[in-house]
Each structure stands twice: as C-alpha cells, then as structure tokens.
Amino acid sequence: MPTITSSGANGIDVNSLVSQLVAAERAAPAARISSNESKAQTKLSAFGSLQSSVDTFRQALDKLNNNETLNARSTSVGKPDQVAVTASTKAAAGSYRVSVESLAQTHQVASAGFAGTGAAVGEGKLTFSNDNASFAVTIDSSNNTLAGLRDAINSASGNTTVRASIVRADDGDHLVMTSLQSGVAGELSVTASDASGNPLPALPIGGLLPGDPATLASFSFSAGSSTNGATEKQAAQDAQIIVDGFSRSSSTNSFTDIVEGVSFTAIKADAGNPFTVSVTEDSSSGKKLVESFVAAYNTLQNSLRSLTSYNATSKQAGQLQGDATTLRLASVIRNELNTAVGGASENADTLSELGITTDAKTGALSIDNERLDALLVSQPDAMAKFFSGDDGFAARVDTALKGFADKDGLLAARSEGLRTQLKGLSVQRDALDFRMEGIEARYSKQFNALDTLLTSLNGTSSFLSAQLSSLL
Q: Could you tell me which residue ranges the Flagellar hook-associated protein 2 C-terminal domain spans (predicted)?
C-alpha cells in the first residue's frame, strides 16, 4: 500500500502552512488599517502645515495693527552729538531751530580731609534735604566714624536724597555727598544738630584745629552760607534748551513737553549755537510690514491651493481636496480681502486702492509700489487708517480667522479628530494582532493533530502491509 504523508515527521511543513494561512487571513484587515492610517496621517500633516501658514499670516496681521509703526515719524538732527530726538505719531512734520544751552548737573559736596575711614566725626544728627524730600541720621558711639557715617547715610530707610562715598586724597579721606536728583531741585542742604535736635555751633573760620573735638558741623552745607563745613564740588544745575527762540528748563536732560509728540534729550551743551531738527513722515517701516503681510498671505494661499487642488493630468488630488473646513477657510479669507474698510481714508479703503492687487489665476497678492508711494505722499496716514485699529483691516481679518485658527478652532478640532482616529486604528491593529495569535494557535493545534493522526495511520498501513505480505 502507498504511504500516507503528513506534517512534521510525515512531510507536511506545519509552521509554513500555518504562517501562510494566518498571513492570508491578516492581509485584508491589515491593509485596511494601514490605508486608513496613511490617509489620517497625511491629513494630519496637511492640517499642521495649514495651521502653521495661518499662524504666520495672523502674526503679520498683528504687526500691521500698529498705528505707531504705520504712522511713524523720522527725525533729522543737525548736531546729533548735542541732542537726541525722537518723534511719535502725534508729532507734526516740521523743522525747529534748537540750541543746547546747558546740561543738568547733580549737586555734590564734600567734607574736609580726615585721617582715615576710622577717624571720629562727632555725635548727634545730620539732616539732609532738597526741594522734594528730607531725612535724618543719628550718629552715636556705635557709628561715629567716617565709615560709620557713610554707612548710616546710605542705609537710612527714608533716604531718597543723597548717596555718600569716601574718596581718599593727598590731604586725607573725604566724605563725598552726591544728590540722587539732578537739577536745581536736587540741591542738597545738610544741617548738623546734637542728639536733642539743637543746632551745633558752626565751625571756626579756617576749620578745626589739631586737638579740637570732632563735630558733625564738619559736614553741614547750605547754599550761600559762609559757615559751611562741607565744600561744594559741583553746583546743582538744570538743563536748558532753546527751541525756535523759546527757552525751556528741566531737572534732567530730557524734554518731552516742548513740542507735542517730540522728545529731546540733551547730550552736550553749546550755548548760543543753534542747529536744525526736522520731523518727517516715515512710511518705510509701515511698507516693510505690508510686504511681510503680502508674503505671509501668498504663502498661505499657496498652501491652500496645493492642499485643495486636483491635477487632471496626473490624477493626483491635494491632501485636503474637497475638505469642507479648508474650502470654507479659503472662502472667508478671499471675502475679507475684497471687503472695504469703514473709516479708512478716502479712495484708500480697499487693498486694491492701496496698490495691493490680486492675481486672477493664482490668487497671490502683489504691491504696486509706485501707486502706494504716491498715495502716502498725498495721504500719509492712509496705511494706518486702513490696517490698524479695532475696526481696521488687520483686526477684522484676524477676527474672521479666530474660529479656524485659535486653540479651540476648527483646524485644531480637525487635527485632534485625526489624532483620535489614529489612536483608534492603533487599537484595531493591536486587536488584529491578538486575534491572529489565537487563529495561529488554533491552526497549529489542528494541523499538529492531523500530523499525529497521519502518523498513526501510516503505522497501521505498514502493519497491514506486512500482514498481507505474509499471507501471499
């Protein structure tokens, strides 16, 4: 009799047979999951790219919504080493004759020389004052040295008036007291008194003699007094400039209220020698923002066109071709770009009237610089009125995009939906793997059982063959 063949020991490759059967059963659902994953991942990537383009476009819009930049002023200074000038949008264009008569100075007085920072200075109170503030320090046995006095002044809780330091010179150590406020209003007055508040006697003419007891009167000072213990090292002085023949003083070197919208900062004095300061409209910064806006829009437009297009020749569709959210976004942007802005300048309430036109085929924007420049000459504030403000073009378009591009907008929702879909597909893949493991185990069990049966049948067949042979 012929021999019956089987698996394993009987000639059938059980492992290969089981693998092929499992692979055949896995193929269709695995392919479906992979296809869905690929589509979801492609769309997720497309929405991410679109979100990035929209965000860049919104950033360009945000920068355009800036009246200070769109309506900027530039300045020209005849002697920039003498004064720095800035102008805000409130400044009117014009020229001014300016001269810097003096700079602000900080009042400074100093004591006579002492024989070191540990030298005694006397005890009592020193009261410091200027036009705006006053405070006192008490000097006793715990701090009655030159260094102790310096530290007591600088650490006093109410001190907004003076800063003390010690300067060493050939004739000894001097306590230098410098006002914390520049200008005449910061002029220091230093009064010495005993612990009870009684004024200390003035120093003798010529100052203390060797052996005289130390006294806080050595640090007293009052402008114009003949009994000062301290010496004036730098007088308090206001800054002064003259603009078109009108004089203006300041305790600092800054002047912000001479001409509306124009700030002057004095740098160097040259009394009696005026020079010209000019303020003009500056459209260059605004034009750069418009150029950035056009570039960002064109990038967004290219992204939308690429994602939603269909190539009839290659029969290739964009990643979001036919997607309702993307098509609606494109439509909203187109409508906003073609809508006039209320409150804008006459004959400058649309992009096209500003010289920003749309290509009929590609939808891309371009700037007619000659037309825009001519408009800005006749209407310097045209760009600011069109783009900036709560009702301006930039704010209006950005508001229209919020529902799409904000964190809880449609683009984010679509992306989150795709991520959820990918997670679900991953769960399906895991479930398929688990099911295939069960099927593989079942097939292995069945074919191994068949192998055992065939082995038994082959044994029986051999026995019968032997018995029949013995009968012949």
A: 236-458
